[in-house]
Automatic annotation (TrEMBL):
Pfam families: DUF72
Record Gene3D superfamilies: Protein of unknown function UPF0759
InterPro entries membership: DUF72, UPF0759_sf
Name of protein: DUF72 domain-containing protein
Length: 283
């Protein structure tokens, strides 16, 4: 029984001296992050396919059970819209190969303009992907959530290849107006989709966005604690990513979420205790 938790990144300036040792070379920070969380979103691969040697370094810094949910490049998903990007896809798959079992799922995040009429394109794309990977799709067109017939068609396309549907829960974030610069920035950028809590596979993935205030973040994730606990009792192995607008406390919050689920499911193993970090000093 495993619940993996993580953040949107493995390094942030505000984490240095708190969650990550300082100073520490950038190519070693993932190792420190992996002492706090056992999963991470691979958002950087959306903007550029990394060098294979770089990915090999990621694998060297993490345990084989660590989970990367790695986003396909935007040239594949947003610019070519899953059509005619075979060369770019091959280069991406070659680059991430060193992750081995750590590549928990390849994340296909689609633009808001990718709607119900595009489901056949997605279905064909998924069928052509190599069976050696698991796949998870994030959609941002409201019809997929609001129209039951459209929801069903998308679920059928995903189920045909055992792919998961990733919900990005921003409902708690948008419950009240922003109160900080980070929240105001996220307010203008994050999607406002209806809440979805259905798992299609035995490895559901959830992205949750809270607020900069810890109490409001925790209040907003309460329903997910029960949902994830139920998934574990059903034999599923979920991965949950905790976001806040500034992400300043995200590693600690991810561990807190894991602790809250474990309080409901005592047989869930605790996360390893992270190595203490010396605080930053002026000298």
């Amino acid at each position: 029984m495993r619940l993996h938790v993580g953040c949107a990144m493995w390094s942030l300036k505000s984490w240095q001296g708190r969650f990550l040792p300082h100073p520490r070379p950038s190519h070693e920070r993932l190792r420190s992050y992996a002492g706090w969380c056992d999963a991470v979103e691979g958002n950087t691969t959306f903007y550029a396919t990394p060098a294979r040697d770089t990915v090999a370094g990621w694998a060297e810094q993490t345990d084989p059970a660590f989970r990367f949910v790695v986003k396909l490049p935007r040239v594949v998903t947003h610019e070519r819209r899953l059509t005619g990007a075979e060369e770019e896809l091959r280069a991406f798959l070659h680059a991430i190969e060193p992750l081995g079992p750590r590549a928990h799922a390849l994340w296909i995040q689609l633009p808001g303009s990718f709607g119900p009429d595009d489901i056949p394109v997605l279905a064909g794309f998924l069928r052509r992907l190599p069976a050696s990977h698991r796949y998870a799709v994030e959609v941002r067109h409201r019809a997929f959530f609001a129209e039951p017939r459209t929801t069903g068609h998308l679920e059928e396309a995903l189920a045909a290849v055992d792919a998961e549907w990733i919900p990005f829960d921003t409902t708690a974030f948008f419950r009240s107006p922003p109160t900080s610069d980070a929240e105001r920035d996220a307010w203008s950028k994050k999607p406002r989709m209806p809440l979805r809590t259905v798992a299609l596979t035995d490895r559901p993935i959830v992205r949750y966005l809270g607020r900069d205030a810890t109490d409001r973040t925790v209040e907003g994730w309460r329903p997910w604690v029960g949902i994830v606990a139920d998934w574990l009792r059903e034999g599923r192995s979920p991965t949950v990513f905790i976001h806040t607008p500034d992400n300043a406390d995200a590693p600690a919050l991810a561990r807190r979420f894991h602790d809250e689920v474990r309080a409901r499911v005592p047989e869930l193993a605790a996360l390893p205790r992270p190595t203490p970090v010396e605080p930053l000093t002026l000298f």
